[in-house]
C-alpha cells in the first residue's frame, strides 16, 4: 500500500507542471524527477526523495515561467499537498521497513495523513485570502521564483518534521534496548 500511494503521489507531483506548461523541458525534468522519486520509493529513502522533489520543484518553476504570469492557485496547492504527503508516506515506510504494521495502526496513520493534507489545504486557503490584499505587479521571472520558494519552504518544513520523528523513533529504540539489556 505504501508503494502504491507514494507512486500515485509522485505522478500527481510530477504531472501538475506538465499540465501547466507542456513542453519538452518540463517533460524531461518531470521524467527525471519521476525516476528519482521512484527510486526513492523503491528504496524507501527520504534523502533520495529530497533530490527527486527538488528536481520536481525546478520542473514546476520552469512550467510557471513558460506559462507566463502567476501560478495557478489550485495546481500549486495540489502540488504542495502531494509533495508533503509523499514525504510523509516515504518517511513512514522507511521507519517501518520490514515490519508488519497492524491494520489498525495503518488506518490511524492514514487518518494522520488526511489531517495533514487538510491542514495544509486550510493554510493555503488562508494564505491565498491574505495574499489577495497585497496585489502588485512583478516581473514575469519573479512568479516562478516565488512559487518555488513557497513550495520549497513547505517541503523543508515537512522534511524537518519527518527527520525529527525519525530521531525520536531512534531515541525510543535506544532507550528500549538499554532497558532490555539490564
Summarize the SSE layout with pairings.
Elements: H1 2-20, H2 24-43, H3 46-67, H4 73-95, H5 103-131, H6 142-181
Helix pairs in contact: 1-2, 1-3, 1-4, 2-3, 3-4, 3-6, 4-5, 4-6
Structure description:
This protein has helices at 2-20, 24-43, 46-67, 73-95, 103-131, 142-181. The mean pLDDT is 82. It has one domain (2-181). The chain is 84% helix and 0% strand. The N and C termini lie far apart (38 Å). The protein has 182 residues and is mostly helical. Helix 1 (2-20) packs antiparallel against helix 4. The chain has 6 helices and no strands. It is globular and about 65 Å long.
- Number of separate helices: 6
| Computed structural class | mainly alpha
Counting DSSP E segments of at least 2 residues, the number of strands comes to 0
Radius of gyration: 18 Å
The H-and-E topology, N to C, reads as HHHHHH
Stretches where pLDDT is under 50 for at least 5 consecutive residues are none
Instruction: Give the CA-based shape.
Output: globular
Mind summarizing the main beta sheet?
Answer: none
Proportion of strand residues: under 5%
**What's the overall average pLDDT, rounded?**
82
Distance between the termini: 38 Å
Structural domain count: 1
- Please give the share of residues in helix: over 70%
Provide a compact summary of the structure.
The protein is an all-alpha fold. The chain has 6 helices and no strands.
Amino acid at each position: 500500500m505504501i508503494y502504491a500511494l507514494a507512486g500515485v503521489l509522485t505522478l500527481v507531483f510530477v504531472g501538475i507542471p506538465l499540465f501547466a506548461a507542456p513542453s519538452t523541458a518540463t517533460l524531461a525534468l518531470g521524467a527525471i524527477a519521476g525516476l528519482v522519486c521512484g527510486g526513492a520509493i523503491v528504496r524507501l529513502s527520504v534523502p533520495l526523495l529530497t533530490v527527486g522533489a527538488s528536481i520536481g520543484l525546478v520542473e514546476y518553476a520552469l512550467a510557471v515561467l513558460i506559462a507566463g504570469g502567476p501560478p495557478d492557485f489550485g495546481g500549486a496547492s495540489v502540488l504542495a499537498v502531494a509533495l508533503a504527503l509523499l514525504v510523509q508516506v516515504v518517511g513512514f515506510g522507511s521507519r517501518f521497513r520490514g515490519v508488519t504494521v497492524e491494520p489498525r495502526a495503518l488506518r490511524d496513520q492514514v487518518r494522520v495523513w488526511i489531517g495533514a493534507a487538510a491542514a495544509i489545504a486550510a493554510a493555503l486557503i488562508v494564505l491565498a485570502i491574505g495574499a489577495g490584499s497585497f496585489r502588485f505587479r512583478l516581473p514575469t521571472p519573479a512568479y516562478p521564483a516565488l512559487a518555488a520558494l513557497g513550495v520549497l519552504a513547505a517541503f523543508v518544513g515537512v522534511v524537518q518534521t519527518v527527520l525529527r520523528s525519525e530521531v525520536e523513533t531512534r531515541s525510543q529504540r535506544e532507550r528500549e534496548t538499554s532497558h532490555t539489556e539490564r
